[in-house]
Amino acid sequence: MPPPLTRSTTTIILLLLSTTSATIINQYPYQEQDCTNKWIFIRQLPPRFNVDLLTNCSSYPLFNNFCPYLPNHGLGHKTHNKTHSWFRTDPLMLEVIFHHRMLEYPCLTTNPNLATAIYVPYYGGLDSLKYLYGPEVNNSFRHGQDLYHYLSKKDSPDIWDKYMGHDHFLVLSRSAWDFNQPEGNDPPGFGTSFLELPEFYNVTALTSEARAYPWQERAIPYPTSFHPPSLHFLHSWINRVKRSKRSTLMMFAAGGGISANPNIRRSIRLECENVTQLSDEGSGYSNLCEFVDCSNGVCEHDPLKFMRPMLQASFCLQPPGETPTRRSTFDSIIAGCIPVFFEDLTARKQYGWHLPEDQYHEFSVFIPKEEVVFKGLQIVDVLQSIPTNQVRRMRERVIEMLPRVIYRRHGSSLGLKETQDAFDIAVEGTLQRIKSRLDEVASQ
Ligand SMILES: *[C@@H]1O[C@H](CO)[C@@H](O)[C@H](O)[C@H]1NC(C)=O
Ligand SMILES: *[C@@H]1O[C@H](CO)[C@@H](O)[C@H](O)[C@H]1NC(C)=O
Ligand SMILES: *[C@@H]1O[C@H](CO)[C@@H](O)[C@H](O)[C@H]1NC(C)=O
Ligand SMILES: *[C@@H]1O[C@H](CO)[C@@H](O)[C@H](O)[C@H]1NC(C)=O
Ligand SMILES: *[C@@H]1O[C@H](CO)[C@@H](O)[C@H](O)[C@H]1NC(C)=O
């Protein structure tokens, strides 16, 4: 028996099917757009590679039922009825969100020969669930083989063959580390072999977290809960962020950090508990540290829990957890809270297209985690030593970055010309990288 569908799931699937198989509706006045070197062709895939994975949203007993996160093209339900911009977004929906934005992209072509890049609307992160948590757990080396066969043999192989996949790209809504099992691993560890398959070596993969070495991986921002539908809503939020009174020096929203072993999260928790007892010594802050306990995933779909404290803090601590990157980095930027990083892999070595690597000192603070964990460096001391006017300048830079890390709402009236969001920047970066890759291959 097929799993029961919620009405919103069915709606989303019908919408997807109608847009993928028939006409593409452009939201922008694209006759004004210069599409030179920007044309993208979308490969048609059978539904088992995307929409069928959504109908199966409740069939992974060891994983959470993700049906509640499907409405609004993957943005999830609104946080409350009256909001225009705030949703209970699950980062796993990045593949769905991106796909829908792609359907609105102003330079789509139906002629693959005209395209600079070929988008593969495959929901690889969702497809991986059956290998990671489902019945295919012993076949994780097969993840991607079916897709490769389809792209290169079954459906118009000439599209693949033209550049042997070098012009293809796809999005994976999980860390690249979840797809790096060597094919021969027996018994397999956690993860599938998708990014280890030679079949996909030529394909650009946009992931939530990339590994440092493979050239074809690029990290793009995690989707946050903020998806404004127009310039008006973006600007009124930015004004609120600018006006917000920052009465807390630093805040930390996370679970974990309770193990007995020394690690950065533990050090932060201990320091935070310790400093909150201290009285304010003319720093201008009424609170030196606020800890928001997000254990057991209580914050994941409830942005109010952490956005309010982030709006009231000058600095937001972003230590690595199980993996180096955090969605919270982007939440804090949206709140105008200056991120404090403890290793370069958390952001600097990941999101070069969205947050330029050479500008980190302007909008973030770096404190090596070893200094804190093993040498007793107090984070509070470092942050308090930064002069007030420098803190203000950094916050202004954070707010300048804000539009670059949001995924605006589908069908929004926000003109491309006015502002580039995370999607636009990811597509631009992908087009450039594919173009230079094709030049490289041609010259070999
Ligand atoms: C969805 O679930 C059904 C029943 O478990 C399974 O037969 C089918 O292959 C699944 N589809 C996809 C695309 O995973
Ligand atoms: C939100 O709107 C829905 C449908 O219009 C309604 O059923 C629900 O009661 C509303 N919730 C609140 C909290 O107002
Ligand atoms: C996977 O392999 C292990 C070890 O051989 C076995 O115990 C387990 O039942 C298998 N799982 C599935 C879902 O086939
Ligand atoms: C990837 O590209 C190289 C040439 O750069 C080619 O030799 C190889 O066959 C391609 N791989 C696939 C799976 O098409
Ligand atoms: C707590 O604060 C005191 C006074 O500043 C300091 O000496 C001590 O090292 C702190 N302890 C921790 C665990 O941070």
TrEMBL record:
Residues 1-22 form the signal peptide. It is found in: Golgi apparatus membrane. One of its GO terms (molecular function) is glycosyltransferase activity. InterPro entries: Exostosin (IPR004263), Exostosin_GT47 (IPR040911). The keyword Transmembrane applies. One of its GO terms (cellular component) is Golgi membrane. Residues 36-374 form the Exostosin GT47 domain. Its main location: Golgi. Keywords: Glycosyltransferase, Golgi apparatus, Signal, Signal-anchor, Transferase, Transmembrane. It is a single-pass type II membrane protein. Belongs to the glycosyltransferase 47 family. This is Glycosyltransferase.
